[in-house]
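Researcher: I'm comparing several assemblies side by side, and this is the next one on my list. It has 408 residues spread over two chains. Same procedure as the others: predict the full complex and return the structure.
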Amino acid sequence: MSAQSSIYRWFPSLGVLVLGVGTLWAATDGFRALTEESARRLQVAESRPQVPSLLLEDMNGRILGLTHGAFADKAGEERQITLVEFIYTSCPTICQTAGSDYAQLRDRLKQSGLGDRVRLLSVSFDPEQDGPEELRGYAEAHGADGVLWNIARVGVQDLELMKRSFGLRVIPDVWGGYEHNAAMHLIDPSGRFSAVFDIDDVEGAYRALEERL
Amino acid sequence: MTRTLFAVLSAVLFSGCVVFRGELEADPVTHMLLQLPALALAGVLLLLATDLRFVKLPAYFANAITLVAVFAVFFWMLPRYIDASLINPFVEFAKFLTLPTLVGASLALAWRQAHPFLRGFLKANAISMLGVLGFLYIHAPLRICNSYLVSDQQRLGYGFLIAAIAVSLAWTFPLFFPSPSETGASQSKTNKVTV
């Protein structure tokens, strides 16, 4: 056996190795996104999809736009950036944590004077259960003033579109509630969905807002 | 005769995975630990039902085909594609296609002919991977798959741990009870001495 032929023996395995690693690399965006959630965040950061200008109903029964452009009230016109989180008010766990994280963010924004240029939205994906009264209850529990921080619900007819646009996955849990990907979603002044933050990443969200203003 | 049996079993297993995919995929434990292995097993049985089972491969080629199965397993270990298979029909189709062929049939064709070192290495890694996945899924505070609840994810973690233990027992236990053909003549001599 010559040395040459023994080298050729490595070719099939090497070929599979290269193809295999290449496939995994491509399938995970360069080993950056192994889960659907990280893939969603990467895709948002890179392609910045346009958010549909859905109308929401807030806790006082007023209609407002999900994106900045469709904003109804005068005060809102000046608020360029929207940070959206998705909740349902009967949620006993993560939405309550999310509420207190949002409260922290609100305090920081107020302190630094950015409080009149940002809009914090908590949007319920459970419009059947969450009427204005339930939304007001959530607002009172967390100190949402309806200006800087508003609580709203999406219309039943727009629910699927909203879930699709944000890659929101809501699944019923065993206690009659839901599990969902809790995160803060940044909509920039051009109405594009451009960043996602973990629900407790107050610092990261604040810095991103500061950067964009 | 056995061939027909293998073919029928393969078809039954595969169609069972397809027909009951809703039920199997509703729970991550049955999805990952029942449906996926069953699909691979259907591929093994399918290959055993054909003449390919007698194909003699050079070891280096058998190694390469074994690696194909390894990468296919890696791919279907990615939570991202488990999620995707639930909402994207193309990914679901790819799952039903590649697990029997790339994993099951590849292993049935090449595993016994692959280099013993490669087999040992893969066995050891399979056990540790199942163990690591088990701990990860039990302790991850977040959902690794968006389609499943955290509590289901924890059950899956315990499932992985049990699988790790079961596989390591299954692979090590026979080593303590070698068959006569493996022990050879010298072993039988020493037996006589001790007796």
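Model: For your comparison table: The CA atoms of residues 18 and 96 of chain B lie 8 Å apart.
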